[in-house]
Specification:
The chain is an alpha+beta fold. Helices cover about 25% and strands about 15% of the residues. Helix 2 packs across helix 4.
């Protein structure tokens, strides 16, 4: 059955209309959640996030932590992104120290009081928010490496400049691949609004609405108030004054949920970081380092050579010997370095079939693993799983050293 068959489209319409009738705010992200539900489960999935309590309440499994970021529709995520945490037990913002029961997410609150309880959303809708490709602004799509062909003929209106270029002539190996879009014509305001307006987000009733910030809120390291341009400087521009949350895929801020793991109360000693981003094997680490530096959160320095950027290894260990409160970060770039020659650590590939199985490049022009490809064949999936498994096992000694 196609995801876009008449019966499926009728189901999507009925579901979204039911949500709207129940008083929920419906967006394109909710539709995306229904598509994700079909791609993953092939049928309606009644499960809710709070159902996962049964799988962790006795410590039999690690606690799952899911991430979204709250944004403003007219700002880029690098200008305003508040990390929102979801677990089977609670959802909320460590920035504000405010959490609610997971069952009450999307219900209406005012000044901390529940005024209208809504049914807990099915996990399919949360999956849509946690992985929403519709949440990016056009500028963020550009910065992520997507080519906007309709701008090719607008060179008089838009000037594209590389902010930092990673090449053999680059003097610094710590830079991130970024672009700056600079409108330069009389229509600059309209271009800027078009590029920076968010296409969609998961809109939910704001459970922080009506709460008052402490008069000394700015002394918390969670708030960046050292510039006049930061939204954190103005209490009236912060989330408690908004009736609606605009939640998007946290990957639009940092494509790995380090900020949630680094909550001080968790006292994390070791973080295993797996690079699943397309391009820039260390970008998430550099962005996290910047995020932590701005908020005085202990995080190890990410020191890399130019060779590391060009030809990364399977595993890196980052530490800070000067600060015992800093967690150790073990980072695994997604690369096929030794897997192509070994089917297991120390076990070389011998037959033509074994060699062919391991001979593939994760990132290339025709890679099936590009960000825009949402489905894999069984072979593509198995190769990727085996590659990740091999990279971890091949660096077992480094992992044990970190532990």
């Amino acid at each position: 059955m196609s995801a876009y068959s008449l019966s499926r489209l009728s189901y999507y319409t009925e579901e979204l209309n039911r949500m709207r009738d129940d008083g929920l705010i419906v967006s394109l992200t909710d539709f995306w959640g229904l598509l994700v539900e079909f791609f993953v489960y092939r049928q309606e999935n009644p499960a809710r996030l709070s159902d996962q309590k049964k799988a962790v309440e006795s410590g039999q499994n690690p606690l799952p932590i899911y991430a979204g970021v709250n944004t403003k529709t007219d700002l880029k995520t690098k200008e305003f992104a508040e990390w929102c945490e979801f677990t089977p037990y609670e959802a909320g913002f460590s920035k504000y120290g405010a959490f609610i029961r997971t069952e009450d997410f999307r219900s209406q609150f005012n000044k901390g009081c529940l005024i209208k309880r809504m049914a807990e959303p099915r996990i399919s809708y949360l999956l849509g928010m946690w992985s929403s490709a519709f949440a990016a602004s056009l500028d963020e799509i550009w910065n992520a490496g997507k080519k906007l062909e309709w701008l090719d003929n607008k060179e008089d209106d838009v000037e594209l400049a590389d902010d930092i270029k990673m090449s053999s002539e680059t003097s610094s190996s710590d830079g991130l691949h970024t672009h700056v879009v600079t409108p330069s014509s009389p229509v600059s305001y309209l271009v800027d609004k078009l590029l920076n307006s968010r296409l969609s987000s998961c809109q939910s009733h704001n459970f922080l609405h009506g709460l008052n910030l402490h008069s000394k809120y700015h002394t918390s390291h969670e708030f960046i108030t050292d510039t006049d341009t930061s939204p954190d400087t103005f209490p009236s521009k912060l989330t408690p004054s908004e009736p609606i949350l605009n939640l998007v895929d946290s990957g639009l801020s940092i494509n790995s949920a380090f900020p949630l793991v680094l909550r001080a109360a968790r006292e994390v000693d070791l973080i295993l970081s797996f690079d699943y981003s397309w391009g820039g094997h260390f970008d998430v680490l550099k962005l996290t380092q910047q995020y932590c530096s701005e908020r005085s959160i202990p995080f190890p320095p990410i020191t890399l050579s130019e060779e590391d950027w060009k030809n990364p290894k399977e595993c890196y260990i980052f530490t800070d010997a000067k600060n015992p409160k800093t967690p150790i970060v073990l980072h695994f770039p997604l690369i096929n370095q030794f897997f192509r020659k070994f089917k297991a650590p120390g076990v070389p590939r011998v037959t033509p079939e074994e060699k062919d199985w391991g001979d593939f490049v994760v990132e290339c022009a025709d890679s099936p693993y590009s960000t825009t490809n949402f489905t894999y064949t069984e072979q593509q999936h198995s190769r990727l799983v085996e590659l990740n498994q091999y990279n971890v096992l091949n660096n077992k000694d480094t992992l044990l050293q970190a532990l």
